[in-house]
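Researcher: First entry.
Model:
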Amino acid sequence: METRTNLESKTVDAAQELITINVDSYLGFTQAAETIPDPDAARLFRQIGNERREHCRELERAIGAKPEDRSGTVKGTMHRWWLGVRSAMSTDERYAVLAEAERGEDAIKHRYETLMKENAGNALSPVLHKQYAEVKKHHDLIRDLRDRQKAQ
């Protein structure tokens, strides 16, 4: 039986993948907070970014990994680049940033859903479910903000 001190390699791999995805999310929300012309949304983005950084730490603790500086993925870097381009080209910068943030939230939400199914019942499962609830809450909030902005 798998325990927190005796993790299977697929569990460690799932945690490592989520650490990288959460780094991408943290960096994306940090950039979005600097880009969006709305101080309330910027504050929310910083809060979510900090939460994602804490997700990394929690996952590292769960698998016994040492905290390290991570730069994310090429895909995440491209998403952040596109965020900058899209907001610069948009007539509604707030909507553009919210739309890109929601797109990123879709990606992380779906990855958590997949990894929760693949890792159901293992030692990492409680951490995944807790973090997924936070990811889903923020996904839905950003989606609603985006939709309200579009309706204006």
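Researcher: Second entry.
Model:
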Amino acid sequence: MEERGIDRSWNYQTDSSDERGKDFNRLSQLVSTQISKISQNVATIQRMVAQLGTTQDSEHLRQNLHEIQHFTHTLSQTTMESLKNLSSLPSPSNASEQRQWKLQRERLTNDFSVVLNNFQAVQRSAAQKEKVSVLRARVDSGIGGVSFLFCENPFNENASELTANVVPQEKLQIEQNLDIQTIQEREQVIRQLESDIMDVNQIFKDLALMVHQQGEVIDSIEANVDNAQVHIDQGSTQIQRAAQYQSKARKKKMLCCSVIIVLIIVISLIIYFTTGGEKVAIKLCESGCGVW
């Protein structure tokens, strides 16, 4: 009876040890796969960020960039949870297996720390480029000058056709609304990047705490934890000022163009009716457009 009890106890311990070994191998493989995917995504993000502000830049590129950044951010959090589960497994009784598990956890933790650091670096780079893009949005979306439209058709037989070339006030308002919408969308992207960067900082802190609790030391983890932020409040103030400046500048430009057009028409008509020189009037109109 005693021998059967001993055998049953030994079999239970063996089965339990085997199950822990299977769990460890499964979680190790899962964490390794997740780290590899994060590394691949970071490389893709780096290539996409390098295209921002170039001729290859587009709204489609930015949308894809934001999606892969968000996915990688979520995957980083999931990987941290998997690594915690791996570290929480009871250590095996065999000294050789204990050392093997310890080395495997250290390797995975180091690898995860490296890809996290790279991910955070490319996040900061993307956030900086987005800030520059927002501040330049009013220039990129600016409408063409009225004088250009006028000079394409320097003189018409009646004043109504000339004034028809002036950009309507309604169109100006539409352009301004589009600019504001674009600025707000880009600002929201910056806020999301700021939040993601802070989340990665928290993952670094959790990683350092987990290692400390295990009594293991991983270099550079604490050094990677910082309080870097994208100062969106200051950027928002600059954006609002830029939008206000743009609105005032366009109104002044519209007023100046209208005054110049009216003056050219009046002077041309006066010269035409007083001298009878139609060619002189046309020449004066063309000269006015060239100066403008």
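Model: Note on the second entry: The domain at 2-291 is CATH 1.20.58.70 (Methane Monooxygenase Hydroxylase; Chain G, domain 1).
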